[in-house]
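Late entry, evening session. Most of the bench is empty. Finally got around to the prediction I had been postponing all week. Sequence below, unchanged from the version circulated by S.P.
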Amino acid sequence: MVAVSGGVDSGVVAALCARALGPKRVLCLRMPERDAGDESSRLALELARALGAPTVEEPITDVLAALGCYRRRDEAIREVFPEYEPGWRHKLVRSEPTGGVIFFALVVERPDGTQERRRMPPDAYRALISATNMKQRVRKLLEYTWADRLGYAVVGTANLLEHDQGFFVKGGDGLADVKPIARLYKSEVYALARALGLPDAIAGRAPTTETFSLPQGQDEFYFGHPPERMDLLIHGRDSGVPAAELAASAGIGAEDVEIAYGEIDRRRVATEYLHAPPVILDPGA
């Protein structure tokens, strides 16, 4: 069972499962939501048809509304933009990598098309993230509902960048029974997509967060660098490549590579809990 978003990661995972198990044994589950729009579900349908795999669409907007996702989100946004109205497009962006404290800003787009950015205080940021994380958790609930119904395993779609750097929601998109591409760099995933013959619109699609209504790349929300550079930075950090040596291929200065190395290390520490199993308390200890 694979949740397919129309992106390259879920496309490659679905194609690998179809190759290994036969397409009829792979359910491609599409779960559109109003902020992300219908494009992802349309591309995921194209993928399922190309693979010859069964597919089901389970829209999650009504469920999220009933849980208060959008209400809680709007309340958090109004702490920064009191004039905000539901329906205004928005996104969350991080500060540029400088080696200092990372802070986040909220960008809203008014009905006339003008955009404004304001820094988010910590309480509003946490309120917004806790609300929007419902999207990943509701999707995972439906994945396991279908897995229980069919007797299937849930296959995760996180690549190495996301898995290593903690770019996932605990109990949400980080939850799976099998994670086939968690050791593959993003560039390797793109290469696999081409080798597997995925539709061009999926094989070349830029990674997004699928969370906010304004277009948003993973670099501006989390990583601070585009995926192809993050591949080089993580590989360089883990291989002990000096910053000055990596700088030319990464397309940034040696000082910026050092800053990126530091962020990689700090994210690993900060998100270690996402990988940790539950703590079992021994009452006899």
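Two things to note before I forget:
The longest strand covers residues 89-94.
The longest helix spans residues 122-150.
Will write this up properly tomorrow.
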